[in-house]
Write a structure and sequence with these properties.
The chain has about 500 residues and is an alpha+beta fold. The protein has three domains: about 35-145, Oxidoreductase, molybdopterin-binding domain (Sulfite Oxidase, Chain A, domain 2, Alpha-Beta Complex), CATH 3.90.420; about 150-260, no CATH class; about 265-499, 3-Layer(aba) Sandwich (Alkaline Phosphatase, subunit A). The protein is built from 14 helices and 31 strands. An eight-stranded mixed sheet has the order 22-24-31-28-23-27-25-26, with helices on both faces. Strands 2-1-10-6-7 form a five-stranded mixed sheet, covered by helices on one side. Strands 13-12-21-16-17 form a five-stranded mixed sheet. Helix 10 runs parallel beside helix 12 and helix 11 packs antiparallel against helix 12. Bound molecules: zinc ion. The site of zinc ion has 4 residues, from helix 11.
Length: about 500
């Protein structure tokens, strides 16, 4: 569902109904006081500006009619707060509830300034006059599309129900509610004078944006650091200057929410660790195979169209949810440590060293023999030296060498053998999630799985670290969308995989 309507590049003016004014008053109001201006929304670095000195931009003196306005170019203010999306529109909001939404294509004649008459104000020489909001309270950056790791989504396992962002929520979807802070009483000449204090809260109107009641049995809230919390109530979300947070009983559970997953599967990527450890403790041998970048929808498509003949012979895969953000280092860590990214400390691409033991450390401590077979680059650190494979036959892939190394070690009495195939991810990026070339690669990897499982007598886990969604260039992953977040998961005993 895409509710964004500002496609054409022209200033579109919204007048927000009276009463929809905003409260960021932190100074006492008197005639001369200038209330602070907030620059916020889809930005990395929201700003509160009390005076022009607060911004590191050279100011100019403008003559606007018979007034003098000390101002800075709006373009530079936007750059200062670092937008987190593409093609931003600017929502200018005044203290009186008037607002204007203007596109940012040409800001050459646009300024934000202070005048004695109006406090903060917008001065746009080239745009329609209705964009010149006086007593300006907020400049909200509203991105047309979010960057990869930004935005706020509501998904179920089948589809993305809502793609929004802090800026977009300020534009079209929030409610205000008063939250009681406390009461106190004072006595004056025999009378009891009572006051109850409140804070006004800004709550994203998720239900409203979805166009009605949400229908689900269970849900989780997912944080940008990979946190996962059981979802309780919609009014426990708060819209902050540039993010949505999630609270319970007045406590912040997740500071920066990536979104909500309705009816998530029971299976989680972290089960790779727990299943492997449990099996080893039962004296079983485990082969865990990571097929990089194989989304559940790609698996289904491959099965339906005959691109995965071997996987078709296995029991149907369970649907598993990976950790957010759905990228390799994060989910390699989640699968090998059994912990969500906020606990392992592995929630960004550049993170390399988990702050908790991996399955290899646990295996070593218990005297189990384990290894992992990977390509030429080690994505994350673990306690053992991996078997690294290079492209010896120069065919542009290391998966064939990885298969060879894995087949050899499958006969060497390992308690845990982890194998990482990369080519399905590569094909998905280049050609797209459901492209013929990607399906051909899935068929190739399907053959590798068949060979490996034939050679292995113990238990087998087959899983993926993330899926893939289509882009203009091919495919990508890293968003809270079903294509990226859900992957197939098999836990097979020797019986399933022996034949
Ligand atoms: Zn990838």
């Amino acid at each position: 569902m895409n509710k964004r309507t500002v496609g054409a590049c022209m200033a579109i003016i919204l007048v927000i109904a009276a009463g929809g004014y905003y409260m960021f008053y932190t100074q006492s109001q008197n005639d001369k006081a200038v209330l602070p201006l907030h620059v916020m929304g889809d930005v990395q670095a929201p700003l509160r500006v009390d005076s022009l000195d607060d911004i590191d931009i050279d100011s100019e003196t403008l003559e606007v009619g018979d007034r003098v306005v000390h101002a800075v170019p709006l373009q530079e203010v936007v750059a200062e707060v670092k937008p987190t999306g593409f093609d931003p529109s600017l929502l200018l909001v005044g203290h009186d509830g008037r607002a204007a939404l203007m596109c940012s294509t040409d800001l050459s004649g646009s300024y934000i300034g202070v005048s004695e008459q109006y406090g903060w104000e917008a001065v746009n020489f080239n745009h329609p006059r209705s964009s010149n909001i006086k007593q300006l309270s907020e400049v909200v950056i509203v991105a047309e599309r979010s960057h990869k790791y930004a935005g706020f989504g509501v998904i179920d396992t089948a589809s993305a129900l809502l793609e929004t962002s802090a800026g977009d929520l300020y534009r079209q979807g929030y409610l205000h509610a008063f939250e009681e802070v406390g009461s106190s009483t004072q006595h004056h000449e025999g009378n009891e004078l009572q006051v109850t204090a409140f804070n006004r809260q800004t709550i994203p109107d998720i239900e409203g944006l979805l166009g009605g009641q949400l229908d689900f049995d269970g849900a989780v809230v997912v944080g940008r650091r990979g946190e996962i919390e059981q979802f309780g109530r919609l009014d426990e979300f708060r819209l902050g200057p540039n993010s949505v947070s999630y609270h319970a009983d007045g406590e912040v559970l997740i500071e920066d929410v990536a979104g909500v997953v309705l009816d998530p599967p029971e299976r989680r990527i972290t089960d790779v660790y727990h299943d492997s450890l449990k099996l080893m403790q039962e004296g079983e041998q485990v082969l865990a195979i990571l097929v990089d970048g194989l989304g559940y929808h790609q698996y289904l498509y491959a099965i339906e169209h005959g691109h995965a003949p071997f996987l078709s012979t296995l029991p149907e895969a369970e649907k598993a949810m990976v950790a957010y953000p759905p990228i390799t280092p994060v989910n390699m860590a989640a699968s090998l440590t059994g912990e969500t990214p906020d606990v392992s400390g592995m929630y960004r691409r550049e993170h390399r060293s988990p702050q908790v033991p991996t399955i290899f450390g646990e295996a070593e401590e218990r005297g189990y023999k384990s290894t992992i077979i990977i390509g030429p680059i080690q994505t994350i650190d673990f306690e053992i030296d991996p078997v690294m494979c290079v492209d010896r036959n120069a065919d542009g892939s290391t998966d064939d060498e990885i298969l060879e190394a894995a087949l050899k070690r499958s006969q060497q009495d390992y308690d845990l053998l982890v194998v990482h195939f990369k080519d399905v991810d590569k094909a998905g990026h280049t050609h797209g999630d459901l492209a013929a070339e990607t399906m051909q690669q899935i068929a190739e990897t399907d053959g590798y799985l068949e060979q490996l499982l034939a050679a292995w007598d113990g238990h087998v886990i087959i899983f993926s670290d993330h899926g893939m969604h289509p882009t203009e260039e091919g495919g990508d992953h890293g968003r809270l969308v079903p294509e990226d977040m859900f992957v197939p998961y098999w836990l097979l005993d020797g019986e399933d995989s022996d034949e």
